[in-house]
Write a structure and sequence with these properties.
The structure is a single chain. By secondary structure, the protein is mainly alpha-helical. It is built from nine helices and no strands. α3 crosses α7 and α4 runs antiparallel to α5. The radius of gyration is 18 Å and the shape is globular.
Length: about 200
């Protein structure tokens, strides 16, 4: 994180600052554990697939950011019907986008990773197919997360992120040494599903 980003974090409330820090740890801990137990080549395969997923998060993050002020306005004016309607619309749009994203990533995973990274990154295709499920879950989880922020539940979110980091470390430490990048991919799917359900 850049110095300017840390200054912005320091100026926010502590639950939001903690969430941002935990979020950085959460999104990087699997690659760190993978690098400790597996080859650099396998880390590279996973990193490429994961980078594609990270870029795919632009849409739900943009949608959630656009909805947040409207949901917050509805919540502060005690208009629960409007707030629920906005969240429902966000989930519906996320659902459509998630279906399209998963279909594209599952069908075109192999040619996509070869196009981006070259033939040596062919094994990234299988990892991308698994991680596409995590992306679909993240589409919904993002909307729930923004809704919780609008409701002022930042402490709850910070606690959830903390639990996710611990769970992620535990699962990756248990399965990555033996099963490698495919285990890291499925752990990402599992932790994202848990996060969405709790949110």
């Amino acid at each position: 994180i850049s110095i300017s980003a840390w200054r912005k974090i320091a100026g926010t409330s502590w639950p939001i600052a903690l969430m941002l820090v935990l979020n950085v740890i959460y999104f990087r801990i699997d690659i760190l554990i993978l690098s400790l137990f597996r080859t650099d080549q396998e880390v590279g395969w996973y990193s490429l697939a994961y980078k594609i997923i990270e870029n795919g998060l632009f849409f739900p993050a943009m949608l959630g950011g656009l909805l947040l002020p409207h949901i917050t306005s509805a919540v502060t004016s005690n208009d629960s019907k409007r707030a629920k309607g906005l969240v429902s619309q966000g989930l519906l749009l996320s659902g459509y986008a998630a279906i399209i994203a998963v279909m594209i990533l599952v069908v075109f995973a192999d040619p996509l990773v070869v196009f981006i990274g070259g033939s040596l990154f062919g094994p990234s295709g299988e990892l991308l197919q698994v991680l596409s499920l995590a992306l679909a879950i993240m589409f919904f989880g993002n909307i729930f997360g923004f809704a919780l922020i609008a409701l002022g539940k930042q402490r709850m979110l910070a606690a959830l992120y903390g639990a996710l980091v611990l769970g992620n470390v535990a699962l990756n430490s248990a399965y990555v040494p033996r099963y490698g990048a495919i285990a890291a991919s499925w752990v990402t799917v599992i932790t994202e599903a848990i996060a969405m359900l709790f949110a």
